Amino acid sequence: MRPLLAPLALLAVTLPACPGTDKTTAGESATDTSTTGPGASTTEPTSSTTDTGEPGALCPEHTAADACCCFEAHMNISSTVENVCGTTSLCPAVEFECSEIDETCTTADEDAVNCMLDALAAGTMIGSLSVHYDIDSNYGQRKLDLYLQGDRTAYVADKEELDVSGHFAPTGRYELREAAYFDTCRAAADIQAKADCLEDLVTGEASEVCIDAFEYET
Fold first, then answer.
1. What contacts 57, CB < 8 A, 6 or more positions away?
2. N or C terminus: fewer CB in 10 A for the chain?
3. DSSP 3-state percent helix, strand, coil across the chain (nearest 5)
4. In terms of Cα–Cα distance, which of 144, 117, 109 is closest to 44?
């Protein structure tokens, strides 16, 4: 588990995007309650019922998270990057309980981890994936929300908090790491190795920046 961010300063502004219903938010629980994942005998990624947004003034033809106008930043005490266009959840959200002191993470649902790694290795599905690291019982956290585009790219919202400081990396479209990387992660017997893998999902800078990096206080 990599070190979390240092204390950062507060910014307060809201960036517009296309309005919609059935929203999901990075750093908070998604409003989609129809998430499905692997069955009892397999961890192959499967699509759930689509969480569809209504066309908005800035994105009249976008009812899924496939353009920059689908993301809206709310920079305040409960800072979020919100998906306002809807999504399809490909796997259950991955939840890790981690210790910053001894740099270890555990999870109660390894099937969800494997489902996410399978989807990332394939890279051809369209829909959302989410991984959350709870650090020292809510002293800190990291949350990554990915919206796969079916071509080994994804829109990514990446949030980190430690104590009273928070930071969002640039939200935008990134290239996923190569399939072999995720295949190797999937084959690892150690859940810690898988947790480490899921902290490093993309390669290079964003090819399309939707929302610049920003910092805030919790």
1. 18, 19
2. C
3. 15, 35, 50
4. 117
